[in-house]
Amino acid sequence: MPITKSAKKALRGSAKKKVLNDKQKKSFQNAEKQFERLVRAKKLSEASAYLSKAYKAIDKAAKNGVIKKNAAARKKSRLAKLLKKN
What we know:
The chain has helices at residues 5-40, 44-63, 69-85. It contains three helices and no strands. The longest helix is centred in the N-terminal third of the chain and has 36 residues, at 5-40. The protein has one domain (5-85): CATH 1.20.58.110. The chain is mainly α. Helix 1 packs antiparallel against helix 2 (44-63). 85% of the residues lie in helices and 0% in strands.
């Protein structure tokens, strides 16, 4: 446990940031999963429409530092590849 006043304050701040980061991470993971479900169900028109929503969630996570820029690019690339393959 933190002892100094500043360490206690830092702990509170990092706890708040963790909640926001986890929420954002869950958001883009759910978007990825939903997109993959649509592709696997052969609902390609719906999947192509949903692709932009998944991109938006991934880009937002990368912008806020939840995932790195190259990780976001890799995820987006794999989603597009999955859609094109089916």
